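User: Sequence recovery, please. Input:
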């Protein structure tokens, strides 16, 4: 059995290099219908690199890291704050009403001896220009950190692409080997069935003992069991490859 397994794997690899092989059956990306999808090994790898969710996730992380670098660079630029507000409030114990903001300083008027419930209008306008030419390397360190995170995200892209490509190629070859195993198991069933039928005829004509017929039927049942297991392995390999390719 081990020899047969090695032979099947070698034959599968050879077939990949010289021919087309059906590798998945599911939803076609072009027609959006349930149609068989036929791919070569190179096409399966390229399709997985284009549709596997992990690739899209690391690409999004890389884009976010690049934006973080641009955001860190903006700290070198000057900053301007503009504030304008208008309000109407009671002229109570303390004059002046300011909303929380960093531009104009809050100023209070004179303290009244008694409370006054009348209301008055109040306005405030502020303009603040600020720039820090020296920061002892703080902003440079922040930019460097953002660049390091961007480099890490780019490296993660290559690592993920390699992992997906290897997984897709492995799934492709595994499915191809499973298909070859099904063909071998089917041939074994056909051989065992012919042998069982032949022995049955000989037993009926009293040319062979009945034990030979029982043994032939047992070998046929074993071959059919191996065929079922091979087909089950093929379906599992097909589903695994379809998940790697992003096909329903």
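Assistant: Recovered sequence (248 residues):
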């Amino acid at each position: 059995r081990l020899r047969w397994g090695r032979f099947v794997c070698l034959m599968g690899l050879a077939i990949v290099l010289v021919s087309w092989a059906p590798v998945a059956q599911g939803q076609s990306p072009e027609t959006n219908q349930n149609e068989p999808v036929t791919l070569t090994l190179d096409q399966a790898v390229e399709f997985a690199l284009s549709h596997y969710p992990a690739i899209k996730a690391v690409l999004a992380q890389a884009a976010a890291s690049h934006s973080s670098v641009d955001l860190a660079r903006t700290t070198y630029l000057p900053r301007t704050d503009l504030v304008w507000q208008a309000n109407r409030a009671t002229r109570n114990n303390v004059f002046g009403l300011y909303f929380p903001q960093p531009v104009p300083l809050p100023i209070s008027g004179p303290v009244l001896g008694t409370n006054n419930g009348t209301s008055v209008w109040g306005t405030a306008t502020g303009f603040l220009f600020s720039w820090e030419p020296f920061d002892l390397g703080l902003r440079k360190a922040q930019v460097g950190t953002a660049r390091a995170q961007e480099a890490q995200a780019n490296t993660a892209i290559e690592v993920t692409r390699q992992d997906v490509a290897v997984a897709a190629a492995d799934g492709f070859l595994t499915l191809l080997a499973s298909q070859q195993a099904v063909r071998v198991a089917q041939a074994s069933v056909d051989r065992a069935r012919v042998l069982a039928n032949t022995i049955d005829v000989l037993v009926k004509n009293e040319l062979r003992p009945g034990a030979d017929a029982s043994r032939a039927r047992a070998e046929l049942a074993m071959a059919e069991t191996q065929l079922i297991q091979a087909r089950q392995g093929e379906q599992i390999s097909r589903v695994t490859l379809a998940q790697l390719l992003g096909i329903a």
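The longest helix spans residues 138-204.
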